[in-house]
Design a protein that fits this description.
Elements lengths: L1 H9 L2 H28 L3 H33 L1
């Protein structure tokens, strides 16, 4: 009985959604690091740094795009 109560609490939609987001994010940028390592033959540290730069670049680009959309929507009502 106690186990079912714990499972019910952990199955909230937000928890599941964030778990999936983090897993996909790690898989995508992990693949970037592996491909970069295979292509360039650099160390794993450099490959992980490259994947981090790609991740930060994507997050910044999405933030700028969202901000631009909000400003355009505010201007046009």
């Amino acid at each position: 009985m106690q186990k079912q109560k714990w499972l019910t609490q952990c199955r909230s939609r937000r928890w599941i959604r964030w778990t999936v987001v983090v897993a996909v994010w790690l898989a995508a940028y992990g693949a970037v690091a592996v491909v970069w390592h295979a292509i360039t033959g650099t160390t794993w540290l450099y490959s992980l740094v490259f994947a981090g730069i790609v991740a930060v670049g994507n997050v910044v680009a999405q933030s700028i795009a969202n901000r631009t959309k909000r400003k355009a929507a505010a201007r046009h009502g």
